[in-house]
Amino acid sequence: MYNDTVVDAQYRQLYERFCQGDHRASIELVNLLGDRLLRYIRRSCIYDSYEAAEDCVQNTWAKLVQYCGKPVQDSSFWGFACAIAKHQAIDDYRANTRQKRNPGEGMGHLEDDDQPALADHDADPAKQFEALEDERESQGRLQSFKQAVAGLPERQRQALTLQLAGYSLKAIAQHMQEKDETVKSHLRYAKNKLKRVLVEASQGLDRVVEA
Amino acid sequence: MTIDNQQPLEDDDAFGQELAKLYRTALLDEQFQQQVRQDLQALPTNVQADLLPAEQVFVQEETLSAAAKARMLDMVPPCRQPQAAPVKPQSWWRKLLAADWASSLLPGPAFSIPAALMAGVLFGVLLPTLLPSLQQPEYVTRGGQVDKGIVTHPDTQAGEQNGITDEVRQNPQQWLAAIAELLRQGKVAQARAELQAFELQYPNYRP
């Protein structure tokens, strides 16, 4: 959908022009980047409501505005904007959780995602090393998971996606217009493959550490 | 660990939870989002409409509201925010005409206090001391002709017309006697003018 290199160069150019006060560039950038950021935030399933996601996009934009004049270190401008949006979303989630004192279900990954695991073990190099290893392992597992899911046949992937999104077996069968047993089979094969890939990834990492 | 693909493993809860967590984390990646979107869009259209709101966002192309875009466009980069215009130095005559001209023209106390003291010393002590010695002698020409190069006293000119010579004026007693003669002759105005000239010449004269 997005030709990353070309689009990123366009974002960067528009952002520079916007920072120099070009109003036309700001309109173009808001139209391009704003909508894409909104979809990214909405599809990351951090926010339940459209309004909250819209607020997150606005806050992200405000931070980009404040960043004007400073060099964008990230190789990708979109990655830079995404990182700001993600941190904003995580901050909002934490603030919301503190306010409600009732963490949302299934959002534990946000707590893990941005936690500087080294912060608690600054004084102990051994623990620092362990935290680094954990971080690398979790990143490796995530990468393997994404690759494995991408490599699944379409029907298996659809069934797995719906199940991971929280649909019941019956609902998945209904949505996929298949029999329950067929869906079960899709899920079984998909999970077997994922499990194998994840185990291999762990073993590979272990070998690297041992070496 | 060897896993046989033909003999599927049991779906244990721990692995299911791990997969769910990995799925949620992977959703933070836009590429993964695109893949989920393609899978969900591959479902029949009537099924897509029945998806939960969380999955509806994948099959719909949502856009920002016009109000949100307007709010974003209102945000101006820090370098473009209105700043105070550079102050152009005012010309002296504008300062003079300004309502608060005195505040800009008067020097600060660090200068004005020593300057006032110096001025006081100058006018109160030095000038009264020096001025008497700087007084020039008055010269009067003979015959009523005024030499333009020499400062002359007007009353002295009048005295010549009254028949009082320069030699007489050198002697105060003779000058007073000449004034008395003028009075006797009834030339009161001339005598008064000569007397004024005499008082100027000899301010504290006592016979």
From TrEMBL, chain A:
RNA polymerase sigma factor 70 region 4 type domain: residues covered: 143-194
SUPFAM superfamilies documented for this protein: Sigma2 domain of RNA polymerase sigma factors, Sigma3 and sigma4 domains of RNA polymerase sigma factors
Keywords: DNA-binding, Sigma factor, Transcription, Transcription regulation
Domain RNA polymerase sigma-70 region, chain residue ranges per copy: 29-98
InterPro entries: RNA_pol_sigma-70-like (IPR039425), RNA_pol_sigma-70_dom (IPR014284), RNA_pol_sigma70_r2 (IPR007627), RNA_pol_sigma70_r4_t2 (IPR013249), RNA_pol_sigma_r2 (IPR013325), RNA_pol_sigma_r3/r4-like (IPR013324), WH-like_DNA-bd_sf (IPR036388)
Region (Disordered): 98-121
One Pfam family in the UniProt entry: Sigma70_r2
Family: Belongs to the sigma-70 factor family. ECF subfamily.
Protein name, entry field: RNA polymerase sigma factor
Native source organism of the sequence: Candidatus Thiothrix phosphatis
TrEMBL record, chain B:
Protein name stated in the entry: Anti sigma-E protein RseA N-terminal domain-containing protein
